[in-house]
Amino acid sequence: MKKEILHQYTGLLKDWIPKDASLAIAAGDRYIYYAAGLHDILLKEGQAVQPGSLADRTIQKGVKVEDLMNDTWFGVPYYGISYPIDVQGTPGALIIILPPNYQVLETYQYLTGKQEDEWCPIAIEQVTHIESMQKKTWFYAEEEQYSTSRTLKELQIRLPKNFLRIHRSYIVNISYIGKITRDFSSNFIVQLKDGTELPVSQKYMGELRMTLGF
User: Angle 181-183-187 (CA atoms, 0-180°, nearest 5)?
Assistant: First the structure.
């Protein structure tokens, strides 16, 4: 069955699917095929389709679904695009699995931040990092703090690829990283060139190491 299904969709995918993408096919309540790309979420063939997952939402509604998946059953964040398909009479889903910073929308050139009663457009390359704190989102540029109404999840999808999610509360501009160290618990700490220290959570450690190559 695997070869027949793959042959059906290979022609559609081969011209545009990125090389770092992984490919999964679900039929009914199980994943029946998984081909790992450079961005591997460690999915296993035969694994159950979890409620609320991209595959589940596509199979239940019969529509294309795309979303940034940070808190996943696989333990690896990713951006997924899921298409409804028919697998020998069974409703299924074909899922393209991409790095979480995959660009499907035009990237931001500016972020408009608020300070008191003023709104300031800030060139994206000047932003050092972005923080989620007390249900608000803040970004930093030239040692100034700005608030924005956008969530980290919304921002992550449209930020340039030199921005990297390192924690559920932090996105960092790689251009401003001074060094990466470990704390007393051997967890990674990103230190920016201005001395700001940002923690790296276990979930994003692999993404950090893969992106920066260490």
Answer: 85
For 201, half-sphere exposure in the C-beta direction (CA atoms, 13 angstrom radius) is 16
Identify the pLDDT of residue 21: 83
Cβ atoms of residues 124 and 118 within 8 Å: no
Give the pLDDT score at 8. 56
- Using 70 as the pLDDT threshold, list the residues of the chain that sit under it: 1-17, 19, 71-72, 103-105
pLDDT for residue 11: 46
d(CA 183, CA 190): 10
Strand stretches in the chain, DSSP E: 22-27, 30-35, 65-69, 78-87, 90-98, 110-115, 118-123, 127-133, 136-141, 144-148, 163-167, 170-173, 177-182, 188-192, 197-199
